[in-house]
Amino acid sequence: MKLAKFKEFERRAYQTVYAEPAEGFHNKLIPELIARYFPEFDLQPNSRILDIGSGPGIFLQEAKKLGHDAVGVTLSDDDFQLCKQLGFEMYHASMTDLPIEDNSIDFIWCRHALEHSPYPLFTLYEFHRVLKPTGRAYIEVPAPDNERIFIHEFNPNHYSILGTAMWQGLFNKSSFIPFFFNISDTPLQWDTATESKVIIEKSFHYGMKKSTESYVEQVRREYKLDML
Is pLDDT above 70 for 20? Predict the structure, then answer.
């Protein structure tokens, strides 16, 4: 593919980027998710944390309260400016092309952001690149076939709403090892013009560490295959 064509396709994908509202459903959950999952990662004080898709900066503020050095990345102009005004170091960049040095990040927080990547394998390669050898990542993504499919599968900026087997395959291919996996069912009040009801929003939660083994080596070892 010629570079000009690739850039045009990428432009079409990224023109649907939107800002996360400060009072949105997801942002209200962030403090309790931090309380639930941070202990799994045994983070040291002043850890260098990268927040993928920072929204209005809720996670950045919570991480700062806990004594960490938090930096954010977003493609949203509005979210970028808001987080800068809050005093945070920010990158206006794609999660697949981070202007960050190799092996420099202790922890990646990627909550309901990876599904916005048109090429999640390349994004995971990039996460692997910037994480320190002992680095960890929290990755949370929406499950497929939630009732709000227009918010997920048909969201103009969602490209990777995948099942657990496919996510596991992508993690393996990008040399990550999940060390925990949970499925959550979150009740959500949903009001429309015709009805009001509680629906269940299902998400997948992964704790990730870097593997020292390549995917080819994993396949050869685990499946005794020599096709690669």
Answer: yes
Q: Is the pLDDT assigned to residue 226 strictly greater than 70?
A: no
Q: Is the pLDDT of residue 228 over 60?
A: no
Q: Is residue 123 part of a domain?
A: yes
The residue with tokens 């990158």 is: 91
Q: Which two tokens stand for residue 187?
A: 């009740």
Within 13 Å, how many C-alpha atoms sit on residue 115's CB side? 21
**Segment 182-191 mean pLDDT:** 87
Mean pLDDT within 160-174: 96
Helix or strand (DSSP H, E) at 82: helix 77-85
Number of domains present in the structure of the chain: 1
Which domain CATH number covers 164?
Answer: 3.40.50.150
Residue 18 domain-assigned (yes or no) = no
What residues have CB less than 8 Å from 144, skipping those under 6 apart? 152, 153, 161, 162, 163
Cα gap 67→46, rounded to integer Å: 5
Is 212 a member of any domain? Answer: yes
Ramachandran sector of residue 87 (left: φ over 0; alpha: ψ -120 to 50; beta: rest)? left
The pLDDT assigned to 208 comes to 97
What was the pLDDT predicted at 116? 96
Identify the domain containing residue 75 by its residue range: 31-223
The CB density around residue 226, as the number of other CB atoms within 10 Å, is 8
What gap in Å lies between CA 160 and CA 124, rounded to an integer? 12
